[in-house]
Amino acid sequence: MFGMPILLVIIVTSIQNNTFQLIKKNKTTLLICNRDTGNLSREFINVADKTEMFKIVQLPKDQDEKQLTARMHTNDEELLAVIIPADFSEKINAKAKLVAGKAMNAFGLDGDTVIANADKAGGITLYYQPVVQESFRQAVHGALFGALQLVESKQILRTLYFSVSENALPAKLENELLNNKSVVNEVPVSLDEARSLPNATQHNVPAWTIFAMFFVVVSLSGSIVREKLSGGFIRLKTLPTPYFISLLSKQIVYLAVTVLQAAVVFAIGVWLFPLIGLPALNLPADKAALFFVTLICGWCAVSYAACIGVFARTQEQANGFGAVSVVILAAIGGLMVPAFAMPDSFKTIMKLSPLHWCLEAYYGLFLEGGKMKDILANIVPLIAITIFFQAMTVLGLKAKKLI
Asked: How far apart are CA 119 and CA 156, in angstroms?
């Protein structure tokens, strides 16, 4: 129970980091069946290849839809395919002439006659396997749409330039017109005015460390139930101290375990992750605040575990309810799905999860560069929830006449 959550942090961070880098570094195989014989289809394929998102595999132009889908079903790596219709270049040329003609007429010059149905420019057809998630499919759609728009824009410029000067558009001017793009600068908003971009490690290590700490519920609650069932509790009652003192001592020991567990995970993030190709974990500047948040999170996890152990009647009940409830609290608390992506109906429920306040406190330190005063708004609710668990534990002990 100490080592497995640590392994979970490493695995999840590796997967998330690979997901973040999927579009930038890993190329996805894209099957292309080009039925067009014009230059514009070859130009489209070249532009799509330059996005460095795809590994282009060209298929024979006579391959039909049935053969294409059958090939995709038999190969798990071939998730995407594109069919370029036979009239691709013809329709883009027609649209370019239409747009150029309208522009010439707007300038008071004689433009080409409007071609019927030229505004219905030919596109491409994208096939994808259902296992492809919607977010990645939209990224693929955006990349292909961008390549298609670039080919169309080039042809419109060439046609318009030729209509005005009766000369071909110079390659240098074409590049200047199409590649002179504005830049979008990304600046993370942080409390310490740092400008370092958060990575997958900064997001995942704090979140899954909290998840690991709360899984102490399996060990501590099970221990309390075993004492009640094995007669160990009777022996503890013979001691000249209340049973609550014994329970408090258990909590202190398990609190030390959760803090040590967090320290091990953070150490792995700092020193081991760079060795296995993952971004290193950058610890917050306020180390005292980091220790305090870890202590409060551990205390909350231990309090929850003790509360479950007092009310559970069997060890199976304690382990089953404890483990499943932690997963549920993690899900509604924003560990598995970001808080901003949750539906409005969950925004209120999310604040009832102690893992949500733990995560917000950690993110205030790791992602926003905050200090103790900046995360007090998250610490206060967390302490209140912890006191509630402790109060329920005492009430449960009294109700069962254990104290």
From this structure: 13
Predicted confidence at residue 291, as pLDDT, reads 95
> How many domains is the chain built from?
2
For residues 169 and 209, membership in a common domain is answered with no
In a domain, 31, yes or no: yes
Mean pLDDT by 10 residues, the chain (403 residues): 77 72 68 89 89 87 85 83 89 82 68 52 80 80 88 81 70 66 66 60 86 89 83 72 78 93 91 87 90 95 93 89 90 79 76 91 87 91 94 87 71
Q: Residues 6 or more apart from 106 whose CB is under 8 A from it?
A: none
Dist. CA 145–CA 126, nearest whole Å: 11
Domain, as residue range, for 72: 24-178
Q: Does the residue 269 lie in any domain?
A: yes
Q: 384 with 244, same domain?
A: yes
Residues contacting residue 226 through CB under 8 Å, at least 6 positions apart: 232, 315
Sheet (strand 80-84) strand order:
54-59, 28-34, 80-84, 125-128
Tell me which residue of 391, 51, 83 sits closest to 244, measured CA to CA: 391
What pTM was computed for the model?
0.71
How many helices (H) and strands (E) are present in the chain, helices listed first?
15, 4
* Structure confidence at residue 157 (pLDDT): 77
Give the relative orientation of helices 134-165 and 88-106 as an angle to the nearest 10 degrees: 60
- Rounded Cα distance between 173 and 178, Å, is 9
166 lies in some domain: yes
CATH value at residue 85? 3.40.190.10
CA proximity to 196, closest of 264, 266, 280, 273: 280
